Amino acid sequence: MINRRDFLHKGALGATALCLSSKTGWTAASNSRSADSRIEVLFDEPLGTISPNIYGHFAENLSGVLYDGIWVGEKSRVPNIDGLRKSLIEHMRKIKASVIRFPGGCFADSYDWRDGIGPAEKRPRRTNFWANAETEKAPSSHRYDPNAVGTNEFVHFCKLIGAEPYLAANVRSLPASAFQQWVEYCNSPAGSTTLADARGAAGYPDPFRVKYWGVGNESWGCGGEFTPQEYAVEFRRYSTWLPQFDDELKLIASGPNTDEWFWTREFLEEVLRKGRGELHRIYGMALHHYAWNLSRGKTQDWDAGKGEAVKFDQVDWYELLREGQRMEGLITGHWQVLSEFDHEHRVKLVVDEWGPWYRPGSEATPGDLLEQMPTLRDAVFSGMTLDIFNRHPEKVAMANCAQLINCLNSLYLAHEDKFVITPVGHVFELYASHQGGEALRTIFSASNLHYDRDGKSAPFWGLSGSASVRDKSLTITAVNPSTNEPRLVEIALRGATAGEATMKFLSNPDIHAHNTFDQRDVVVPQTKALSSTGGVLVVEFPPASVAALNIQLR
Ligand code: AHR
Question: Atom 2 in ligand 1: which residue has the minimum CA distance?
Answer without folding.
Answer: 105
